[in-house]
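Following up on my earlier thread - several people asked me to post the actual chain instead of describing it. Fair enough. Here it is, all 424 residues.
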Amino acid sequence: MSVQQEVLNSQPKKTSIFTKIKIGLAVIVVFFLVIAATIGILYLTNERAKSIIDTQIKSYNAQKQLEEKAKISGDTRISELAKYYTMMSVEDAGNKMLDIKKSDNKAYESLMSSMTVINPDKTSKIRNYINIAQSNSDIIKSEYEEMKKQNSSQSDELAKYYDSLGIKGAVDAIKKELQSGKNYDKVSSALSRMKAATVAKILNYTNLNYIEGIRNRFTKEFNESVERERQNYLEFLRKYSSLGSLYEKTEEKMAAKELQDVKKFSNDQLSVIFSNMDYLSAAKILKNFEDESKVQAILTEIKNFEDYQMNFEGSFSTVVANSLKVLKKYDEDVDTLRKAYEKMQSADLAKIIDKLVSENPIYRSYKIDNTRIFSISERQMAIDAMKKMKAVLVGDVLAQLKNDNKVDKAAYISREIGIPNSAN
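Reply from S.P.:
Thanks for posting it. Predicted structure:
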């Protein structure tokens, strides 16, 4: 064999396709083994790498679990809706999911699971949108509840304030509030926390232009209660106003005897009765009350009543109280005159009485206030003095009257005096 032939025979043999595949696979295996070894080394030696790897593993496991849940649910509607929502904008899908969550939390969770399988990134954005929306809603809810709490507290305080002012004070305060700001909600809220009977009185004296705006904000139940109390109050006023007119015409001592009976009349009722009399008539009856503290209590009630009920120039209760003082002073003067008369001779006293009955000059004026004066004539004062004298002395005086009309004068004096008290 020649040298040339040997050289030709020594050329490498051609590698088969299977050998190439084996070599390629070996290279790939070695490559992945190197990568795995590198990852393993990083996992064991680098905390950040370890954290990233753990996160990826958890994410993968969670994804597999979601896929399994989606398969188990078996409801094609869930998967179709999930696909439909992932095709929406994040805002639109988030709003849809918020509505579902409010009505059916289980359906919400199923949809979220399916959406995560279909498009985890977008679903994550949708979930973040929902969390932010809920957070804002919670803030608004919290602020709203705080506002309601503060408003409730303010209404409670305003209700107490109205109560402390009395009926007239509350009426004035409400008028001022509505004139300045038309804040019907504030006024109505405060009134609704008060007793229906008190509110009925307040509204009874409130400007008609304001009543509808106030009552429209009451609950149906409270409105009905207020209306019942208002009707009761109107009947109360009608009844005791009529009694005032009746007792004004009754003899003073008899009226006092009946009106001071605590079993028949309360101070509240008496305030209406006396407020519907002439101030001097009211004072004359109250002067005959036995209990001074009772009189003062009635005057206080009259003061409360007159503030919102009466059309009277000045203070009716003050005028009545001043009239009581004047009448007591007058009684003292009459008693002094009686003592003087009792020391006189019947004939001399008869001459004086005869002249007073004929001429009747004004004897004295008592000032009640700057505009009211209680004037008394000498004749009336003499008759009032004779009412307190002994019956025998009065009879002697009448017998001593002179002039042609002495019978008429004696009859007049007798009628004015009535039957003298023999005990005096």
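The CA atoms of residues 87 and 339 lie 115 Å apart. That should answer part of your original question.
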